[in-house]
Amino acid sequence: MSKSVGNPPKFHFVLVHGSSHGGWCWFKIRCLMETSGYKVTCLDLKSAGIDSSDPNTLFTFEEYNKPLIEFLFNLPEDEKVILVGHSAGGLSLTDALHKFGSKKIQMAIYVAANMLKYGFITDEDVKEAVPDLSEYGDVEELTFGLGPDKPPTSIIDSTLAFMLLKPAPAMAFGDAKFKEQGSDADKVSRVYIKTLNDRVIKQEQQDAMTRSWPPSEIFVIESDHSPFFSAPFILFGFIIKAAITLVE
Fold first, then answer.
1. Is 198 part of the annotated catalytic residue set?
2. Which of 22, 163, 177, 237 lies in disulfide reach of 48, CB 3.0 to 4.6 Å?
3. For residue 159, is pLDDT > 80?
4. DSSP letter (8 states) at residue 71
5. Is the pLDDT score of 116 beyond 80?
6. Residue 52 CB contacts under 8 Å (≥ 6 apart), including other chains
7. What is the DSSP secondary structure assignment for residue 231, as one 8-state letter?
8. What is the pLDDT of residue 122?
9. How far apart are CA 3 and CA 207, in angstroms?
10. Is 183 a catalytic residue?
11. CA distance readout (Å), 162 to 50, 159, 224
């Protein structure tokens, strides 16, 4: 990683959204990064953001995460990136770690994110990582694209359904199971940014995931589930602080 006096290190950050969001959700962080001289890519995964795929027809995580995997596959041979994933975007990061390891990825930063080494393999994985919003009443709108007697094919927060959020492919998330693929996934530095006032992936769930698959460092933000909206300057600072360790 090159570094010249007076200029920031030449990091390339790839920002990965969570369920129902799109690349647009990172706009504050992207602005801060680009203004500071960093290269930034914000992807839309399948059926998210401006991608027109129907979430009710996405049944595998491999298909949902294809935009990130293709992006990494097509990187120049000598280029590596820092992945930053929010919420369910953590599953996308872990999938990429297993597929590419340190060949393409310098660091993986999980922001209030699902961080499960092998995805949803056991009931304990589900308990640790899947949001339980039942205490807030009927806040989710389900679509049963395969029929009422089948599992739901998409899900969205009903309060925000008519705003920027889009239905997420529920079956694809349920299919998020990863295998070792000969990569050196554990050699890539992982950082977890914990959100203390999170009512989606609660503090005890975040703690359980970091105990099960310990990251190299944990930062803590006094924020809700989406610090890129509520605490962008603090989140930006932690992301850069983590990245700088690569050149120290």
1. yes
2. 22
3. no
4. H
5. yes
6. none
7. S
8. 83
9. 35
10. no
11. 15, 8, 21
| Backbone dihedral region for residue 89 (phi beyond 0: left; psi -120 to 50: alpha; all else: beta) | alpha
Q: pLDDT digits over 121-147, tens only?
A: 888 887 887 776 556 445 455 556 666
Q: Which of 87, 92, 183, 226 is catalytic?
A: 87
Dihedrals φ, ψ of 195, to 5°?
A: -110, 115
Q: Is residue 57 classed as helix, strand or coil in its secondary structure?
A: helix
Q: Which residues of 146-178 are buried (b: 16+ CB within 10 A; e: fewer)?
A: eeeeeebbbbbbeeeeeeebbbbbbbbbbbbeb
**Is 102 a catalytic site residue?**
no
How sure is the predictor about 158, in pLDDT bands with cuts at 50, 70 and 90? very low
> Is the C-alpha dihedral spanning 150, 154, 156, 162 positive or negative?
negative
For residue 56, the 8-state DSSP code is: G
Length of the chain: 248
DSSP state letter for 103? G
User: 């990582």: which residue's tokens?
Assistant: 129
DSSP 46: T
Q: State how far the Cα of 100 lies from the Cα of 111, in Å rounded to an integer.
A: 20
pLDDT at 223 over 50: yes
Catalytic residue among 44, 95, 125, 198: 198
Q: Which residue has the tokens 């919003």?
A: 133
Structural contact between residues 67 and 46, judged by C-beta atoms closer than 8 angstroms: yes
pLDDT (tens digit per residue) in 9-67: 889 999 999 998 999 999 999 999 999 999 999 999 998 888 888 888 889 999 999 99
